[in-house]
Amino acid sequence: MTEFHVPERHAQLLAYAQSLTPPSGWKIEISGDEIIMMAGPSVIHQRNLLIVREQFDAHRPAELMPSENTDLASPNVGKLRNPDLTYIPVSVVELGGNEVPAELAAIAVEIVSPSNPENDLVGKVRDYPLMHIPLYLVIDPREGTLTLHSEPGDGGYHRRWSGRFGDRVPVPAPFAFELVTGDLIRYPV
After folding, report:
1. By percentage, how much of the chain surpasses pLDDT 70?
2. Average pLDDT for 79-85
3. How big, in percent rounded to 5, are the helix, strand and coil portions of the chain?
4. Counting beta carbons within 10 angstroms of the beta carbon of residue 33, is it exposed (0 to 12), middle (13 to 18) or buried (19 or more)?
5. CA-CA to 109 of 20 to 30 Å: which in 44, 59, 84, 188?
């Protein structure tokens, strides 16, 4: 079997993924040698994301802009991820294209999908620190829980805050506020 240099292999996978025509409302991600296709989000997902985004927008530094479903790329580690919400420098507009270097993201926010929770709870917990994303907020409407991962290094996150819907999430700099979660909605059981 031929071994590929990671950026070369990532480029091949990315080219293949971009040649695919997913069904309307689906998105594509790359993690290692896997191409992951996911269905579009539910209205509960969208409502929860709105609640979170409005609060982050109120506390975002002027040099950061919100972006939903932006491809964050880390060719050196063979990752292409597409968080529900991220905050990236306004200056990335100058780069053009559809991908943003992942290390420029200030945070990745994910609302756990009921159809593929492992992607957010395992895959992205593994991938985002490798991609040098400093904060990863996971909101799980299945369980009514929240987890904020921070301080990436040595292949993982070194800090983890966990709570339940209704708790205030202590979001560090560059946002520096407490995320109010009492209005988040759980998925029906």
Report:
1. 83
2. 91
3. 30, 35, 35
4. exposed
5. 188
What pLDDT is attached to residue 34? 73
CA distance 141 to 185: 6
pLDDT confidence tier of residue 129, bands split at 50, 70 and 90: very high
pTM (2 d.p.): 0.80
Domains of the chain: 41-180 (3.90.1570.10)
Whether 1 shows a pLDDT value over 70: the answer reads no
Q: Rounded distance, CA 156 to CA 187, Å? A: 29
Q: How far apart are CA 71 and CA 128, in angstroms?
A: 13
Read off the amino acid at residue 156. Answer: G
Do residues 82 and 71 make contact, with C-beta atoms less than 8 angstroms apart?
yes
Q: What is the mean pLDDT of residues 167-188?
A: 97
Instruction: Identify which of 85, 46, 44 has the alpha carbon closest to the alpha carbon of residue 66.
Output: 85
Mean confidence (pLDDT) of the chain: 87
AA letter at 20: L
What is the rounded distance in angstroms from the CA atom of residue 176 to the CA atom of residue 55?
A: 11
